[in-house]
Each structure stands twice: as C-alpha cells, then as structure tokens.
C-alpha cells in the first residue's frame, strides 16, 4: 500500500492552489494574443503586472509565513527568471510544488529552481492530522484510496472540467469562481467540499474492499 506521508502542520495551516501562470501574457485579457474564442477564458486584467500582483497579494493575504502552501503545478511563464521572481514575492516559507505540464524549466534542472521549493514532485500522498489526501497536476477518475473517501486536489483545467468523485480543481481560476478572488483555498474548506460529493466507484474497489 502507498503510504500517506504525514506533514507537520495543522489542518488550518495548509492551503492549496494551482495554475497561477505567473507572467503568462496570453492568460491576461489585456495582453493576450489568443483568438476571441479562446480569450474568453482570460483573467480580466488590463496589464500582466496587475495580474501578477493580484496573484501574489491573494497568496500573501491568505497563507501565513509559517503555513504550508501546496501548489498543484504550472507555477510561472516567461522563462526561468519568473520562477525565482515569483517565489521571492511569496512570504510563505514552505511551498510544495507538484509538477505541471508548463514546469519544464523546473523539472529539467536538478538544482537551482527545484531548491526554491520544500518539495518538487509528480504526485503527493499526504496526511495532515487526521486528513488524508492526494495532490497532482492532472484530474483523475480513480486514485489511491478514492474509494475510501480520500480526496484528490488537482489543477490543469482552469475550472473547465466537471470533476469526478471526491475531487476538486484548486486552480486559482476555479477558486475565483467559488470565492470571487484569486487566492488559495484552505485545506479544511477544500476537504469539506469534496466530502459532500459522492465517491466514484467504477471498479472492483468499493467501500468494502482495499
């Protein structure tokens, strides 16, 4: 069985986010070059600096310096420099990054950018106090212990996917739909949202099997 690694934080000290895309001009409505049928999904900022500042402000107003921020991938755009620029602007000392499809500048470097994070990995199996959960960049239909009500937190889809089972898109675009501001969501709130959903049990696993 895959173990869930205990993280030394309290439930109300852990926050989740994803797909910040810091520095990504095409996701900003004022600077995008995307065609109109794609640009409808852009963030409504006239300037990319305003978008970046809003992302940083939302994180720093929500996550304390000694808390834990779990980021489910697609950290930044605009080259290697933005990886460090964005990280330096975040007050939180403890940041776990799950690798997203746009994090190639981080994944290709065995030192340097990866050292900016407490952990850099593909998928995380975590426990905080009594809560077990899985984190990854991509959504899944079935994941480790999903049939035992363990939730999945993911990103990638920017609020465009009707998720399956007890899972939640924690990307800032989806959380904006829920809370009307660009900021991480607390682990407790995210967990409660997932537990109100039915589990997806389309396999030989169910609540009675392991």
From TrEMBL:
Pfam families assigned: Metallophos
InterPro entries registered for this protein in UniProt: Calcineurin-like_PHP, Metallo-depent_PP-like
Organism (species): Dyadobacter chenhuakuii
Domain Calcineurin-like phosphoesterase intervals: 14-152
Name this polypeptide is given: Calcineurin-like phosphoesterase domain-containing protein
């Amino acid at each position: 069985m895959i173990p869930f690694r205990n993280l030394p934080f309290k439930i109300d000290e852990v926050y989740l986010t994803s797909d910040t895309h810091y520095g990504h001009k095409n996701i900003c409505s004022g600077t995008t070059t995307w065609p109109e049928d794609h640009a409808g999904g852009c963030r409504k900022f006239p300037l990319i600096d305003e978008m970046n500042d809003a992302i940083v402000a939302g994180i720093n107003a929500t996550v304390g310096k000694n808390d834990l921020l779990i980021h489910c991938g697609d950290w930044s755009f605009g080259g290697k420099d933005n990886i460090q620029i964005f990280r330096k602007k975040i007050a939180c000392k403890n940041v776990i990054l799950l690798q997203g499809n746009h994090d190639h500048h981080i994944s290709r470097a065995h030192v340097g950018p990866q050292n900016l994070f407490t952990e850099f990995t593909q998928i995380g199996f975590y426990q905080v106090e009594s809560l077990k959960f899985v984190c990854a960049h991509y959504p899944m239909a079935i994941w480790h212990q999903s049939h035992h009500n363990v939730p999945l937190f993911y990103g990638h889809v920017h609020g465009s996917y009707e998720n399956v089972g007890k899972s939640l898109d924690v990307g800032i675009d989806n959380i904006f739909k829920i809370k009307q501001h660009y900021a991480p969501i607390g682990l407790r709130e995210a967990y409660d949202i997932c537990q109100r959903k039915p589990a997806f049990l389309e396999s030989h696993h169910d609540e009675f099997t392991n």
